[in-house]
Design goal:
The complex is a heterodimer of chains A (about 350) and B (about 325). With about 350 residues, chain A is α+β, with helices and mostly antiparallel strands. Chain A has 14 helices and ten strands. Chain A has a domain of about 220 residues. A seven-stranded antiparallel beta sheet of chain A has the order 1-8-9-10-6-7-2. Chain A has a three-stranded antiparallel beta sheet with strand order 3-4-5, with helices on one face. In chain A, strand 6 and strand 7 form a beta hairpin. In chain A, helix 12 packs antiparallel against helix 14. In chain B, strands 1, 2, 3, 4, 5, 6 and 7 form a seven-stranded antiparallel beta sheet that branches. Chain B has a five-stranded parallel beta sheet with strand order 10-9-8-11-12, with helices on both faces. A five-stranded mixed beta sheet of chain B has the order 14-13-17-15-16. The longest helix of chain B has 13 residues. Chain B is built from seven helices and 17 strands. Chain B starts with 7 loop residues before the first strand and ends with a strand. Classes of the chains: A alpha+beta (about 350), B alpha/beta (about 325). Chains A and B meet through strand 6 of A and strand 7 and helix 2 of B. Bound molecules: FE2/S2 (inorganic) cluster (FES).
Chain lengths: ~350, ~325
C-alpha cells in the first residue's frame, strides 16, 4: 500500500472531512467493558496488545496521522503557547524524543527509521517527508526544542511531569487536541491541583492512590488507562481558549444530524517513566468515532445506550453532555433491543 | 504490584577491591544488549540467593548515566549486618549470573537548581558519582564536599579529583579536617540545592543546620537507606491473604511476605520511600519502627508498619496484607 492510500486526507475543523474507515471503526478503543460505568483510575500495564488493535504497539500510528499532524501545525501557528517547556524539562524532552523515535522505528519500519552512531542520529519520517541529522542532547542541532520537535510528529497530546517533593508537576507539554483543559492554565501545577475539577473521584480517594502508584512508576513498565467524553463534530481542539468556536455546536444537534455529528471521544492515556530525567511522560491520545459508525457494532450500540442513559447527572454534567443526553438516549435506544452484552469491549467477531 | 518492570538478567564482569571495606561490581546484560538509561541518584535492587534465603538489596548506580554498556555499584562490607553485603563480598565473582532490577531514583537531582551542592560521607559518595557525570554532561554547576575517615577509606577520591578538579573538596577525619558547614552554606548563591548522602548523623547535621539557616525544604535532598536490622523471630497474621507467617531473626518482614508469596509493594527496601506502608489491624505488643517514613503520630499509635525495616515483639500483630 502506498503512503497516500493509507493516510486520510481530512480536516478536523471547518468542513470537517474527518472520517473513520471501516477498519478504523472496528479497532476503535470502545471504553466500556460493561453496561455500567464507574469512574475509576483503572490503570493496567501498557504491554503490547492484540494485533491490529490500538495497543498493538507502544504508540499507535493510524490513518489519521498525517492529517492530525497538519492540524497540530495549524493550531500552533494560531497559538504558540500550546507548546511550552520550562527550562529544566529539556532533558525530559530528549528522553521523550528517544522513546518515540525508537518505538516508531521499531514498530513501523516502513515509515520511520532511526540510525545512531554515538550521539549522531539520523531520523527519517517518510509520511511527513522529514530527513533530519542531529546530535542527541544538543538542542542547537534541531530546528526547535526536542519535545516540540518530536511531538509535531506524534499523534496525541503530551505532558511531561517532573517529580519532586512527593508529587508530580506538569512542567512541559504539547497540547493541541485537548478535551477542554489548558496547558497554559495548568503548567506548573502539581498532581492534586490539576485534577481538582474531577467530581466524585476526590471523595473516593482515587487520586491519592493514583499518585502513590505513579511516584513508583518504573522505567520499562509503562501503564495505561482510558478516559472518555462526548464531542459534537470531529473537532480535535476543544480547548477552553476556543470555547466560543466549539461550544455553540452543542445547541444545534437534532434528531436528524446526531448520528453524524455526535462523537464519542476516547483518550488512551499512557504513562512512562523517562530514564535520564526521571520525569514521567503522559501521552494522551484521542480517538473520535461518530454515533453512526459506533452503532454499526451491535454490542457497542446496546452498551453505549445503557451507559449514556444510566450515567449519574454530575458525571454527565462534568463530561459536558447533560443538555443533549435525552437526544442521545433517544437516538441510541433504536439500536438497543435489550439483549445481554458480552463482557469486555471488543466488538463481536 | 511489586512494581512492575521485569528484572534484568546480568553477568558480573568485574569485581574490584577498592579498599579494605569496599568492593566494586560491574554488571552487563546477559543478552548483550544495552542497559536502560538512568538518572543520577538512581539505585538498582540486586537479587541474591544467600544459601536458600532470597535477599534483595538496593545499591546506588555509580557509573556515568550516559554509558549504557553496563552498571556499576559499590558495596561496603557490613560485618554486623544480615549478610547481604557479606554475600556480595565473598560469593560474587566475575562470570556469575545475577538478576537486578531496572533503575529507580529516590534521590533525583532537581534540575531547576542554579547550583548543586553535594555533601557525601563514606560510601554515600556513590550516587553523587553518577550525578556529577550527568551534571557535567549537561554543563550544570556543582560542587562536592566529601568526607571520609582516612585516605585509605576515601574511595574514588583520586578519580573524582581527576575528573572534576577543583569542584571536589576532600576532608579526612583522622587528619582533623571537617566541613565548615555554616560558612559553606552561607556562601551559596540563591537557587542552590543541597544534597546529602552518608551516615545518619551526617544527614541530620546537614539538614538541621541548613533548616536553621533558613534553607527552604524543597531545596534539601537526602538519601539514607537503612539496612534492615536483625532481631528476634516474630509471628505475623496477614488479614487480607489469611496466612500466618514467621519472620526469621535475620529476615525482614518484607522478605518473609515475599517468601510466603504475598504480594507486597516496595521500592527502596530501606524505610525511605513509603511504598511498602501497610495498615496495622491489631497490635498487641511493641513495633520497632525503624523507618523514616511514618509520622511520629502513626508510629505512636501503631496504625501502620513499614515491613522493609520494622520488627515486632509481643503477643499478636495483625496486618492488612
Ligand atoms: S520499601 Fe521503601 S519504605 Fe519500605
Amino acid at each position: 500500500m502506498s503512503l497516500d492510500d493509507f493516510f486520510n486526507d481530512e480536516s478536523f475543523f471547518g468542513d470537517y472531512t474527518f472520517k473513520n474507515s471501516p477498519r478504523a471503526v472496528k479497532r476503535f478503543p470502545f471504553p466500556f467493558p460493561e453496561d455500567d460505568y464507574m469512574y475509576s483510575v483503572n490503570m493496567e500495564p501498557h504491554v503490547p496488545g492484540r494485533p491490529g488493535s490500538v495497543f498493538e504497539h507502544t504508540f499507535d500510528v493510524d490513518e489519521h496521522y498525517v492529517a492530525e499532524m497538519r492540524d497540530r501545525a495549524r493550531v500552533l501557528k494560531q497559538d504558540p503557547l500550546r507548546c511550552q517547556s520550562l527550562p529544566h524539562m529539556t532533558l525530559a524532552g530528549w528522553d521523550l524524543l528517544e522513546l518515540i523515535m525508537e518505538s516508531f522505528a521499531r514498530d513501523y519500519p516502513q515509515w520511520f527509521s532511526l540510525t545512531k552512531s554515538g550521539n549522531d542520529w539520523h531520523w527519517i519520517n517518510r509520511p511527513l517527508n522529514i530527513d533530519q541529522k542531529f546530535t542527541f542532547l544538543d538542542e542547537t542541532t534541531l530546528p526547535c526544542g526536542p519535545m516540540e520537535y518530536i511531538t509535531r510528529q506524534a499523534q496525541g497530546d503530551f505532558t511531561l511531569q517532573d517529580q519532586r517533593e512527593d508529587t508530580l508537576w506538569v512542567e512541559a507539554g504539547m497540547v493541541t487536541t485537548q478535551a477542554d483543559w489548558s496547558l497554559d492554565f495548568d503548567i506548573g501545577m502539581n498532581f492534586h491541583q490539576w485534577h481538582a475539577p474531577v467530581p466524585v473521584a476526590h471523595e473516593l480517594g482515587v487520586f491519592d492512590r493514583a499518585l502513590k502508584f505513579l511516584l513508583a512508576l518504573q522505567h520499562g513498565a509503562p501503564v495505561r488507562r482510558f478516559n472518555w467524553t462526548m464531542t459534537v463534530d470531529p473537532l480535535l481542539d476543544t480547548s477552553p481558549e476556543n470555547y466560543p468556536k466549539w461550544g455553540p455546536g452543542k445547541t444545534t444537534l437534532t434528531k436528524e444530524n446526531i448520528g453524524k455529528r455526535q462523537h464519542l471521544r476516547v483518550e488512551l492515556q499512557t504513562l512512562f517513566r523517562l530514564p535520564r530525567s526521571n520525569a514521567i511522560a503522559f501521552p494522551i491520545r484521542c480517538y473520535l468515532c461518530s454515533f453512526e459508525d459506533l452503532v454499526t457494532q451491535p454490542k457497542w450500540a446496546r452498551r453505549l445506550h445503557r451507559v449514556v442513559r444510566d450515567l449519574p447527572d454530575e458525571l454527565a454534567t462534568y463530561k459536558g453532555f447533560i443538555r443533549n443526553r435525552p437526544l442521545m438516549v433517544e437516538y441510541l435506544s433504536q439500536f438497543d433491543d435489550g439483549a445481554p452484552t458480552s463482557p469486555g469491549w471488543w466488538p463481536e467477531e | 504490584m511489586s512494581v512492575g518492570a521485569a528484572k534484568i538478567p546480568v553477568i558480573v564482569t568485574e569485581v574490584v577491591e577498592v579498599n579494605s571495606l569496599i568492593k566494586r561490581f560491574r554488571f552487563v546484560r546477559e543478552d548483550g544488549g544495552e542497559m536502560p538509561g538512568f538518572s543520577g541518584g538512581a539505585h538498582t535492587v540486586v537479587e541474591m540467593d544467600d544459601h536458600g534465603v532470597r535477599r534483595l538489596n538496593a545499591y546506588s548506580l555509580m557509573g556515568d548515566p550516559g554509558d549504557r554498556t553496563g552498571y556499576e555499584i559499590s558495596v561496603r562490607r557490613d560485618e554486623a549486618g544480615r549478610g547481604g553485603s557479606l554475600y556480595m563480598h565473598s560469593h560474587v565473582k566475575p562470570g556469575m549470573r545475577m538478576l537486578i532490577s531496572p533503575p529507580v531514583n529516590l534521590f533525583p537531582l532537581d534540575l531547576r537548581a542554579k547550583k548543586h551542592l553535594m555533601i557525601a560521607g563514606g560510601i554515600g559518595i556513590t550516587p553523587f558519582m553518577a550525578q556529577m557525570a550527568q551534571l557535567d554532561a549537561l554543563g550544570a554547576r556543582f560542587e562536592l564536599h566529601y568526607a571520609a575517615r582516612d585516605r585509605e577509606l576515601g574511595a574514588y577520591m583520586a578519580e573524582l579529583v581527576e575528573r572534576h578538579g577543583e569542584r571536589v573538596h576532600r576532608y579526612f577525619d583522622v587528619e582533623g579536617q571537617a566541613i565548615n558547614l555554616q560558612t559553606l552554606l552561607a556562601g551559596q548563591p540563591l537557587g542552590t540545592h543541597l544534597y546529602v548522602c552518608g551516615p545518619k548523623g551526617m544527614i541530620n547535621w546537614v539538614l538541621s543546620t541548613a533548616t536553621a539557616m533558613g534553607w527552604p525544604k524543597g531545596a534539601l535532598h537526602s538519601e539514607e537507606f537503612l539496612a534492615p536490622p536483625v532481631g528476634q523471630a516474630f509471628t505475623v497474621e496477614l488479614a487480607a491473604s489469611g496466612k500466618t507467617i514467621t519472620v526469621g531473626p535475620a529476615q525482614s518482614l518484607l522478605e518473609a511476605l515475599e517468601a510466603a508469596e504475598v504480594d507486597a509493594p516496595y521500592l527502596c527496601r530501606g524505610g525511605a520511600c513509603g511504598q511498602c506502608e501497610t495498615k496495622v489491624i491489631r497490635c498487641d505488643g511493641h513495633i520497632d519502627h525503624n523507618d523514616h517514613w511514618l509520622s511520629a503520630d502513626q508510629k505512636a499509635q501503631n496504625s501502620h508498619i513499614m515491613p522493609c525495616v520494622s520488627r515486632f515483639t509481643g503477643a499478636a500483630l495483625v496486618i492488612d496484607r
